[in-house]
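pipeline stage [seq->struct] | target=Terminase | organism=Tissierella pigra | residues=555
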Amino acid sequence: MADLVTTQEDRKLLYKYLSEMYGDKQAEKLMLKHKKNLFGYHGLAWAVGRRNLEYFSLYFLSNVYLAEGNAEIAPIHFEMWDEINSMVLNKSHDKQVYILPRGTGKSLFGSLATSIWVSLYNHKTYTVIASAIGDTAETFIRNIKMAVDGNKRIEEAFGQMYDTRKYINNSEKVEFANRTMIQSISAASTLRGKSYNNKRIELLLLDDYQKDDEVMTDEQREKKWKRFSDDVNYAMQKDNSTMIAVGTIQHKECFYSRLTKSPTWKTKQEKGILVDDVDELFNSGHWEEFKRLLTDKDNDNRLDYAKEYYLQNKEEMQYPLLWQSYWDCLDIALQYYENPISFKQEMQGDVDSIGEKRFKTIITESAEVIESHDFKKTMLCVDPAGSGTKGKRDYYAFVVGSVADNKVKYIRKGELYRFDFDEYLNKILFYLRTYTDITHVFIEKQTYSGGDVIRLKELLKEDSELMARNITIINDHQRMNKDAKINLIVPDVNMGRLIFNEDDSEALEQLSDFAGVEYSLHDDFPDVVAQFSLEIDKLNKQIQSLKFFDRSLLF
C-alpha cells in the first residue's frame, strides 16, 4: 500500500478542530506532542475523529464531502453532524427527526457519514438503515463501500477495516474488522428480531422511510404508523439505542408528520426557500413578469423567453435558499410554477397547502385555434358515471384529446353529462362521427364491467359510416390512486403543456375547483383528463416502437 500523503491543509484542518475542542494553546501542545503520529494508526487525527463527527467526515471522508467540484457544505449539514455527535457521545437524546426538503442531501450528510463513523469507532455495534424502496437500500450499501474501499486515510489510521475476503459483504450488509455491521433494508422488511453479534439494533436510520402510496389514504397512513410502532418496540437494543429519521412531510398525518408530533422525538424542520411566503415571492415583482412570460399561450417559445428574462435580471431575482451553493433559483422557481401545492409540501414542509386548488394556471384557446393545429394522434376517453365517493353522483366525463406536432396535448372537447345508458353510448357515436381522426377509445371499466363496450361494438357494426373505421377500444379498470393520477397532469396544465377548449366552461370549472379528491365536490373531469394524458403517452410510445422497428428482422 502506498504511503499516505498529507498536506498543509490537512494539518490546518486538524488544528482547527483541536482548537474548537480544547482551545488554541492546548491544540498547539497536542500537535507538537503527536507530531510524529498526526495521521497514522490511532494517531491524533484518529482521536479527534472519534470525538467529532464533523472532523471525521471532512478528513476521513474527504473523498465524499470535499471532492473537487462539490458544492459548498450548507449550514444545515454542519448542524446535523453536531446534533448527531451529541446524541451518540453525550446521550443528549435518543430520537431525532429531520424534516428537510427534497434534494437537501439528507442521506449523504445524515445516513452515510453517521453509519460509517459509529461503526469504525465501535460507538454502535449494529446499524440499520431503513428506506421505503429496496433499490434505495442497496444504493446506501454501495455508497458506503465506495466511501471506505481503498480509502487510504481510513486504512492508515484504523488499519484494514474493510476486507471483502474476511468479512460479510453483500448488497445488504457491510461488516468491518472490529465486528460492527451496517445493514440496509427496505421499509417493507420487519425490524423486529434483527440482531448482529448478540446485539439488537443500536442505531436505526429511517431514511425516506415512506413511499407515496403509503400516504394517500387514512388506512395506508395508519397501517404504516402501526407497523413501525409495533416493530420498533422489539427491535432496539435497550441500553444503547439511537433513532434518527430524515424525510419529507407529505400529509398532516403521514409517518414523518406523526414523528414531529410525538413527545419522545426531537424535531428539526427546515424550509427550502428561506422566506415566509413563497406564493408572494413567485407572484410579485420580477417573478410575476417571469410567470407572465412562462404562461403566454400565444408564444410557443415561452419557456425560452422567460429564461432569457431571468438571465437579464438574475441579480435582482435571487432569494435565500437552504443550500445556496448547490441549488439554483431558476430551477427552484420552475418547480414551483409546475406544481405549487406539491412544491410547498416538499420544499417548504407546508402541510396547510393540502386542500388548496391544484391548477393555478389553465390555458385555453378557442376551438378554431385549437383545430388549426396539426395533430399526430387523437383519442376519445370516457369515464362513465358511477355511484361516486361520499355519496356523490358522478358525471359521465368525455375528453376528445390530441397530441400536436409541437408536443402539446390539446383537449379539443371536454364535456360532462348526466344521462341514461343509451344516451351515453349515443354520445360516444356522436364524438366518433364529429372527430374523424379518433383512432382509439378508452372507457373505464369500473361502472359497467365491460357491458357498455360490448353494446358499443354492436352499434359500431350497425353503423355504415363507423364500421369502416379502424377504431381500437380500450376497456380497463382504474388501478392507480386517483389523486396520484391527477397530480401527474398538474405540471403539464400549469405550464401550458396541456391546453383546453375555452367553450367547455362546465368542465373547466370542475378542473379549476379541484383541490384533491378528499376536498373536491367532483373530480370527474380532472380524472378523465389525467387518463387521457396517460393513454395518449402509451400510444405515442407504441408509434415510436413501430417507427424504429427494423423490418429486415422479419425476413
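stage status: PASS
auto-comment: The two ends are 58 Å apart (CA to CA). Residues 283 and 289 are 8 Å apart (CA to CA).
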